[in-house]
Design brief:
By secondary structure, the protein is an alpha+beta fold. It has 10 helices and 6 strands, in the order ααααααααβαββαβββ. 67% of the residues lie in helices and 10% in strands. A 6-stranded mixed beta sheet has the order 4-5-3-2-1-6, covered by helices on one side.
């Protein structure tokens, strides 16, 4: 095809695309006007039995409509328009209405409905006219009304400072609740391990020593046997206490730091594990413990479920963030589920305002990207090293 024909073909596709978007905006504006009228009616009758359900229903319908508008605005303006909603509130109509009121993004949705159903409707009609004229007359520029409509929508539907603050407060509240739950579960685990393990062995030790004391004069051989049993119980109790303490804060972290502890994990794994570190110096002890246990849990998942032959661990520190990456050549398909190991990692990182991203398509490979915001405990950083 000649170059001129190709250019005309591209131009025609662009004009048709703008016209299609303008027609779509016209439909969005018409739906917005209808929902805005219903919302006004529902708010006017909020004290009547069916007023609240009407408002909740309008809000439920508005959210997907607004999401469509966000995607259109993102495409037309070539800039991100993120969703700012808080978590949905469960419960009855009153609970949902309170959730709508406290969410600034939901309140701005109502404003957007009114604007889109009036000024947006006019702009959408103008955009359709522009698109038609652009098809008929090549020299007529198209897209101004459509871009203006999308810009106004993006200004209302995007993440504002107030909605970002509300989202941040919700994230912190959820993180705090999960941290409290995690700490409570950890305390219960420690109590259970002490009760079922070391405490039981110490009780048996006391009983053996009491029997030995009672038979000391009459049966020295039986006393010898009881003392051997008591010695074995004391060693077992000591080993269980050491394991319990290691689960709270591994001694290898205090002895060798995070890099050395991760290298020890790699050497103990039943598969080949490479460790790559760079710029990771001393960090606060709680952060090191969280990072260590996150990597340990991730490596356990690889061994148990990944069917991998090799794994790679990468640690780096820059700009106040500790970045951890764990990858393997296994079967993939890893997802975050309640009660799963990845969910435990996510909760552990959330306690420090950290985050986890999972990239694990079916068939592999799997990549876990973990970030922990923190400040280094020392201005010095360790040199890059590799183990594998």
């Amino acid at each position: 095809m000649p170059e001129t024909g190709r250019v005309r073909g591209v131009g025609m596709r662009r004009r048709l695309a703008f016209l299609g978007l303008a027609v779509g905006q016209l439909g969005v504006a018409a739906c917005s006007l209808a929902l805005f009228v219903l919302a006004v009616v529902g708010l006017g009758l909020v004290l009547v039995a069916w007023g609240i359900p009407l408002v909740v229903a309008v809000a439920a319908l508005t959210r997907p409509l607004a999401q469509v508008q966000r995607r259109v605005s993102r495409y037309v303006l070539r800039q991100p328009v993120d969703s700012p909603y808080l978590r949905r509130t469960a419960g009855g109509p009153w609970s949902r209405l309170r959730g709508l009121v406290r969410d600034p993004a939901r309140r701005r949705d109502l404003t957007w409905l009114g604007l889109q159903g009036t000024a947006g409707l006019v702009l959408a009609i103008l955009a359709v006219l522009e698109g038609v004229l652009d098809l008929l007359l090549v020299f007529v520029p198209a897209g101004f009304a459509l871009r203006l409509d999308c810009w106004l929508s993006a200004a209302l539907l995007g993440v504002t400072e107030k909605s970002a603050l509300a989202l941040r407060v919700e994230e912190l509240a959820e993180s705090r609740a999960e941290t409290v739950d995690t700490q409570a579960a950890e305390l219960r685990r420690i109590e259970r391990d002490l009760h079922d393990g070391a405490q039981a062995r110490l009780v048996a030790l006391g009983m053996s020593l009491s029997l030995a004391e009672a038979q000391l004069a009459s049966d020295p051989e039986a006393v010898r046997s009881l003392l051997v049993e008591a010695r074995a119980s004391s060693l077992a109790a000591l080993a269980e206490l050491r394991d319990l303490v290691r689960g709270i804060h591994p001694p290898v972290l205090a002895d060798r730091g995070l890099v050395g502890a991760v290298q020890a994990l790699a050497l103990a794994a039943p598969l080949e594990v490479g460790v790559h570190t760079g710029g990771v110096g001393p960090l606060p002890a709680p952060v090191e413990a969280a990072a260590y246990f996150a990597i340990a849990e991730g490596l356990t998942n690889v061994i148990k479920h990944g069917s991998a032959r090799r794994a790679e661990i990468s640690l780096s520190y820059a700009a106040g963030e500790l970045r951890l990456e764990l990858g393997d050549d296994g079967v993939g398909g890893a997802v975050v589920t309640d009660g799963g190991g990845l969910r435990g990692i996510e909760r552990r990182l959330a306690a420090f305002d950290g985050r986890l991203a999972v990239d694990s398509p079916p068939g592999g490979p799997t990549r876990l990207h973990m970030v922990l915001p923190c400040a280094s405990s020392s201005p010095k950083t360790s040199p890059s090293s590799e183990t594998g």
